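Tutorial handout. Part one gives the primary structure; part two gives the three-dimensional structure as tokens.
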Amino acid sequence: MPCCVNKTEAYDMDEDSSQDPSVPAVETLYFRDGVRRIDFVLAYNDTDADKKVNRRTMFENNLKKEGVELEYEERHRKKKDKLKFVKIHCPWEVLISYAEVMSMKMPLAMNDLEDETTNCWSKCPTPFDLDEEYLPPVPDYFTAAFSRNRLDKFIVENKETFFSSAQRGLIAYQVLSRCTYEEASDKRKRKFGIKNLINSGVYQAAYPLHEGEYLSSHSLLTRGKSNDRHLLYETWAKPSRWYKYQPLDHIRTYFGEKIGIYFAWLGYYTALLLPAALIGLAVFIYGCVRLFDDTVGKEICDENGVGNFTMCPLCDVRCTYWKLKKSCTYSRATYIFDNEATVFFAGFMALWATFFHEMWKRKQAEIEYDWDVADFEQEENIRPEYEAQVSTTKKNPINQIEEPHVRFAQRICRFASSFITVVFMLCLVVAAAFGVIVYRVTVAAIFYSVDQEEISARANLITTITAAIINLIIIVILSWVYLQIATFLTNFEMPRTETEWEDSFTFKMFLFQFINHYSSIFYIAFFKGRFIGRPGAYNRQINFTRQEECDPAGCLIELCIQLGIVMVGKQSFNNFKEIILPKVMNWFKSRNVRKEEKQTLPRWEDDYNLAQMNKLGLFDEYLEMVIQFGFVTIFVSAFPLAPLFALLNNVIEVRLDAYKFVTQWRRPLAVRGQDIGIWFGILRGISTIAVMSNACIIGFTTEFIPKLVYVYGYSSNQTLTGYVDFSLSTFNVSQFEPESLPANNKSDVFGVVTNCRYRDFRSSELNKYNLQFWHVLTARLAFVIAFILLVFFLSWLIAYMVPDIPKGVKLQVLREKYLAKEAIMESESVRRRKERANSQPDEGSVNY
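Part two.
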């Protein structure tokens, strides 16, 4: 590739002489001279008003003053919108000056340390390995922050390839973000930044270019890669490569560190889901195998025994008495998830979450070092929006430079206003969840009153399914509303850096999404059927009607249904939004383009027709996975198959996201990032909640503890025979409240009913809690405390035993610091020798 020519030799940038649309571009990644690389592209509409034209003209003139070179193009395929493109090239001087300002880490020397992480197992070939014949490993260098004064110490083999295309695009975006487009007398009131110009419609789009087409007429095996995009598609994004490891270094090189870290985390999380999914599947199979050996299920399904018990009505007036055998199907299904293996699995998942966090910290330390982002957040630049909004300054105690600063009192006022708004919105979400509860109570009463036995018998199931669907719809609608509010509030708080903005926004959105997704599930798990009162004294504080009751077999199967619908439904919706919707939009944009014509489109126009990455970046991707992590850990004792569904979804998700980034989206900006940000803290918080949640679900929602109490405290032969009778109390129907008395107190089936049974531990005479209730309650509390303490202790032990940073990474960090220090000392030594040489008098000079 030839070197960059001088400005005097370059093509005249100011001339708006567009290329003939009938002549296809030979190489559309470069200017028309075929030498200067296109680092960024701006698209605008030539029919804009004068104000937009003036802003655009001033903006582009200021870019030229910064040393940036521009070239203009018209749309290759003529349309009514008169779209035009501005191609941007950053010369060498611009690249090295901004690289120094951005503290870019550049190669200093080859890494001469052996990788201590390799072992015999890692050297064994597997079908999951990537083929290094056409995907060679990325060279490993020791790096240091770039400095123009020490340019000779860096490995600069070719100025054109010293900065990758991703780095060039990032530097170009920094120039665009700080360039002014409207002057003002007050320097702080100047308007600048490409983001503001796009929001105001001055430009339609701004994006770096893909390396070329992702499809090629030849395969990698025959002629190698056509370009880096083609390489990533063939080795990563292609659906048939779903079982292969991800080429993380190549992803990072093409898309930047932040996107690379996301895919590294997603792949690591998915890999660790495998053992959890297998054990969860084993627990489910165990429940299925033991299904018909369950003593409790046999008793409930026995028409001539316990199944013939007359149960109290499940609603007021319109509901009648019913036989316990109607709960046979529920009790069978409940045992699949409510058995002794579930307790073990809940404890295993709590430890699994801790192991995942600790191992990811080690993996993240390796990535931070390998990708040169270990100190990124400490060196991160101030947001241009922050500089524009803040009018006061303060001297930075580190570099002694005056920087924009928000006073403490002003910051407190802004955070307080934001906090009040967030609390109000969270209350709105809780109100929506309460509305779903009222719907459940009302609809259940209506279905129970239907004369058709088939409908009334399945009233609880129908209510659960419809309520879960309604809850899913509410989740989607409220998510969009709260997104707009959270964005406004985060901007209102004026975060200093991009990382601070993302962390603040993420925390707000997650609080909302946590309540939005989990409120109905927490209701079923911990509140439904807990405060209903008893026959003759029902609790009517909600909507002046009786609250929902659990089936005599418990609420666990309802919890499973709710989890399944919300988890699978939300993942299906996300997959549709992420892959099907962009495909439809891309087809709509290029629906009138013939295949032959599309092949001749310049790269900048072809990329313009692609969908744009979400403005929130990777937020939606992380949120989807973190919400899934909550389903996998918080409620795993109620739904052991959750890790399996998550694993299957993630195997598809990795390739869908890869396909989307490579083929359906414009190339995103190669933003740098140090880690997964505040998401790691959120994951730790979810894991802590999961320990307590699973302890309470096993202790209070399942029948595990009452069964243990019965077997070891009340059963004569230490079996579950007679447990159903033990867990049901007897009520004299003459004590019913007038509003609860069934309209039909007699029937041919039941005869004259004098007593009915209900799920509780109460005496039949006074309807007060009996001794069994207090025994069971004590056992429940003891189990919850013991489970939480044991899991927290083992989690602490795992965290203590697993070091956060691998030994090999520590050695490499020390080696890199040593080389950087040596380079500085040598550079200083050369400078001093030059100064001494210049200070000595010439040999031929004579002093008179």
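Part three, for discussion. Residues 408-448 form the longest helix (41 residues). Residues 63 and 128 are 47 Å apart (CA to CA).
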